[in-house]
Recover the amino acids of this structure.
């Protein structure tokens, strides 16, 4: 058997979110064909490691060169020197763009690098920063490929970052949809005990500003139906979300159990999946909700209006305001038969279009193409 590939993952952060979940899906799928070294641009953010399967060969990098900071030839040189020991480098989002720039400045002896862009934080949710677009245009020629998951980001990459085929690749996110057909574990969400007649609105999100979760609290508070909001995730915005709940006297109707692994064991406990984000691209939580047979109530961020089934589209709001989101949640919360019909259509679309097998195959072939080693990961 050939020696396993040495793959370096350069992340902006490695706390569990959409890009980290996908990265771990691939790490687990590649099995013993690769060894992985993981770097986070935020050195204390490595909680996603808990989702890596037992037996996978990986390490958290010790004292890697800093991925963030002012542009510096010295820092680029240190990053390049570090990357040269690997067979393949995978970089993720703006917070790791300097890995690509390091190869642009110091290309000699460098392994291939594939850069992944999954969306924007709150600082670019409403308007892209021109200087970042210029920097990406300068860096990206050093990448073998730039991968995006959504049509929205594909448009940005083409028209703003000036990327085109063959460098630009779009690979939609996918999950193991079969897992979500299983009956959920009623005890999988600590503290959740369904009351008679209660409708559970669920959200899977890092508690970050870009997720706009206080707005989701306010939207559910405005519903006339008996609803409870469950937000699964962890992050720096917890106090703001709790403050919004207290201000609306919703403390007993908002449950935040923190990060929970294995979403297939509990997503089916929700009646509605909801999103309030300022910016999204191709959110895995939407696919998870669809695979579990849930209707989606969401603002029209990223590809969400195109991701859901035709039956679900009336509940993707025309605008990003809280009132529209409240009305979408209310319409679904008031009608159990409607929720079941929309959820059934969503599950059928998730199975047909968003299963993990196609995504894993596409990424494996791309990485093999970058390496010039067909079959190395598939």
């Amino acid at each position: 058997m050939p020696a396993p590939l040495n793959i370096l993952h350069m992340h902006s952060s490695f706390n569990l979110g959409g890009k980290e979940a996908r990265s771990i899906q691939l790490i687990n799928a590649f099995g013993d064909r690769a060894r992985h070294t993981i770097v986070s641009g935020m050195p204390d953010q490595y909680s996603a490691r808990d989702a890596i399967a037992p037996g996978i060969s990986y390490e958290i990098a010790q004292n890697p060169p800093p991925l963030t900071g002012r542009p510096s030839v010295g820092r680029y040189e240190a990053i390049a020197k570090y990357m040269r020991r690997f067979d393949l480098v995978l970089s993720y989002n703006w917070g790791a763009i300097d890995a690509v720039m390091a190869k642009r400045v110091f290309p000699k002896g460098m392994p291939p690098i594939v850069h992944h862009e999954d969306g924007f934080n709150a600082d670019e949710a409403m308007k892209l920063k021109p200087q970042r677009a210029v920097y990406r245009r300068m860096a990206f020629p050093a990448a073998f490929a730039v991968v995006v998951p959504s049509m929205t980001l594909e448009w940005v990459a083409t028209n703003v970052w000036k990327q085109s085929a063959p460098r630009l690749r779009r690979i939609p996110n996918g999950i193991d949809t079969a897992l979500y057909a299983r009956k959920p574990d009623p005890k999988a969400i600590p503290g959740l005990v369904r009351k008679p007649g209660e409708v559970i609105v669920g959200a899977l999100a890092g508690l970050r500003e870009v997720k706009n979760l206080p707005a989701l609290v306010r939207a559910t508070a405005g519903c006339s139906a008996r609803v409870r909001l469950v937000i699964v995730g962890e992050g720096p915005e917890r106090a703001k979300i709790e403050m919004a709940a207290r201000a609306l006297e919703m403390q007993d109707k908002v449950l935040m159990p923190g990060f929970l692994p294995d979403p297939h064991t509990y997503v089916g406990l929700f009646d509605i999946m909801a999103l309030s984000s300022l910016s999204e691209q191709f959110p895995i939580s939407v696919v998870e909700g669809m695979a579990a047979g849930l209707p989606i109530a969401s603002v029209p961020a990223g590809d969400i209006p195109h991701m859901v089934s035709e039956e679900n589209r009336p509940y993707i709001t025309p605008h990003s305001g809280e009132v529209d989101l409240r009305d979408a949640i209310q319409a679904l919360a008031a009608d159990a038969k409607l929720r079941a019909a929309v959820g059934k259509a969503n599950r059928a679309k998730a199975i047909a279009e968003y299963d993990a097998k196609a995504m894993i195959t596409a990424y494996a072939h791309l990485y093999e193409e970058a390496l010039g080693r067909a079959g190395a990961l598939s």
